[in-house]
Amino acid sequence: MKSFTFKQFEIQQSKNVFRVGTDGVLLGSLANVEKASKVLEIGTGTGLISLMLAQRNSQADFLGIDINEEAVNLTQNNFENSPFSLRLKNILCDFKTFQSDEKFDLIVSNPPYFEASDSEKDKLARQTVELNFLQLISKSSKLLSENGILSVIIPFEAGNDFIKIANENQLFLIRKVNIKGIENSKVKRLILEFSLTEKLVEESEFIIEKSPRKYSDQYLELTKEFHVFKEVRN
Fold first, then answer.
1. What is its main location (predicted)?
2. Which of 111, 112, 168 lies closest to 141 in space, CA to CA?
3. Over 60: is that where the pLDDT of 230 sits?
């Protein structure tokens, strides 16, 4: 499969691992990584999100985990070929059994949300049978540093359930980005960020396209340090 070239790194892709998509680009661009020293990504896929975050924060160290061996190998290759390779590590691991003595300032994930699929890569990367929201949230809450943040991108329809489960696990919503595919359309994705401490929620709106196949000025400004060209698709 054709690789995807960004300004500072390249993403090798595979037909068996989810390719570069808008969700990953948005989370890599918007997740609150600025004050983080240690970052954990759950479900690295190609390594896109960690690479984008590493470009945005030149001091942080990154650990990525994935349950898919091919994804781990692909990510490791992408990490090693990047300018940030010394700060990036990736391991084969099921998050449900992941153990760590250290805490993380940012835990980031584009988590599973498709309930069913015939595709093997979907079964590993997108079915909630592999990692459901409760498992993701409850374990993340134990791995966050005192001021740490959990940052995820999920479908709009899953937002209320995710927030409810987070509250039940002592994680409080501190930021919500309502993402629309096109101007004047319904919200289709949410970026949600949670903290162990209750704070005033920061809420904003983000529009990907101003018209079909034409990115909004907001999107172009957000991704200008990453994209070599304008068009990127899910």
1. cytoplasm
2. 168
3. no
